[in-house]
Amino acid sequence: xxxxxxxxxxxxxxxxxxxxxxxxxxxxxxxxxxxxxxxxxxxxxxxxxxxxxxxxxxxxxxxxxxxxxxxxxxxxxxxxxxxxxxxxxxxxxxxxxxxxxxxxxxxxx
Amino acid sequence: xxxxxxxxxxxxxxxxxxxxxxxxxxxxxxxxxxxxxxxxxxxxxxxxxxxxxxxxxxxxxxxxxxxxxxxxxxxxxxxxxxxxxxxxxxxxxxxxxxxxxxxxxxxxxxxxxxx
Lengths: 109, 115
What we know:
The complex is a heterodimer of chains A (109) and B (115).
Chain A lengths: L4 E3 L2 E5 L4 E6 L7 E6 L6 E6 L5 E4 L2 E5 L5 E6 L8 E8 L4 E3 L3 E6 L1
Parallel strand pairs in A: 2-11
Antiparallel strand pairs in A: 1-3, 3-8, 4-5, 4-9, 6-7, 7-8, 9-10, 9-11
Chain B lengths: L4 E3 L2 E4 L5 E6 L6 E7 L6 E7 L2 E5 L6 E5 L5 E5 L8 E8 L10 E2 L3 E5 L1
Parallel strand pairs in B: 2-11
Antiparallel strand pairs in B: 1-3, 3-8, 4-5, 4-9, 5-6, 7-8, 9-10, 9-11
């Protein structure tokens, strides 16, 4: 099993702060996905990154795929309470999607 | 377009019992995957069904079984429930086989508690 390590496990910040969460593995990914899961809901896909060094932006969220395709980061600028949730990274294998344990983000007003 | 729906929302069962969870896939999707998400963990892949056939299985014992119907809806059955089976069970649907890394759309899950 090719594990995905996510850090930090938990992050509590104030509205307006910036933050970065990480997803790492010892193995190379063909692609990596980031999801957000809100309480009582299933995960929702935010982005898929494929190319080493790729940077994608989704409003205040910036996703980066490492050059060696073994790591990825998610940076949130000026966090808002609506950003609260569990952020999961995931990689595809043969018909399976393997998730990390996630980073639980709490943004307080 | 109707999203992925799951039933029931919550369920409480006793150790040793059997349970059936249901999932209706999003319109136009022919693949359904099931995941188990324990508290504080990421989802773990149980199995996937593509055109009514099992198309991949994670590290779960045979007492976890499934079905996919001609309308692409799906069931997850768990026999001889154990306390560790308490979790959120997520269903996800997609268009095409999982091998092609199609985007999966998740339902809200069924919260199963085994006492």
